[in-house]
Amino acid sequence: MSIPLRVLIVEDSKGDANLMVQELRHSGYDPEFKRVYAPKAFSAALARQTWDVIIANYLLPHF
């Protein structure tokens, strides 16, 4: 049985975000995820929902 996990991914690459989600699934999680790549979208996602984990690319130029 998969473990539910709400994941907010701060990443400008859709491919990299998909790889992260794939790895979570292979590790036994059932991720419900949202990918954002702009500060405004990040703030909105935080206001809309509670997340179990945030995975962030710390090299994004806009942050």
In short:
By secondary structure, this protein is an alpha/beta fold.
Secondary-structure blueprint:
Blueprint: E1 3-10, H1 14-26, E2 29-36, H2 39-48, E3 53-56
Parallel strand pairs: 1-2, 1-3
Question: What is the overall shape?
Answer: flat
Main beta sheet: strand number and arrangement?
3 strands, parallel
Annotation, overall tally of beta strands: 3
**Secondary-structure element order, N to C:** EHEHE
Task: Note the beta-strand portion.
Answer: 25-35%
CATH class: Alpha Beta
CATH topology: Rossmann fold
- Count of the domains: 1
Radius of gyration: 12 Å
Percent helix, as a range, is: 25-40%
- Report the CATH superfamily: Response regulator
User: Unreliable segments (pLDDT under 50, ≥5 consecutive)?
Assistant: none
How are the strands of the biggest sheet laid out side by side? 2-1-3
Written description of the protein model:
By secondary structure, the chain is of the alpha/beta class. The protein has one domain (3-56): Response regulator (Rossmann fold). Helices cover 37% and strands 32% of the residues. It has two helices and three strands. It has helices spanning 14-26, 39-48; strands at 3-10, 29-36, 53-56. A three-stranded parallel beta sheet has the order 2-1-3. The model has no long low-confidence stretch (mean pLDDT 97).
Key features?
2 helices; 63 residues; Rossmann fold; three-stranded parallel beta sheet; alpha/beta
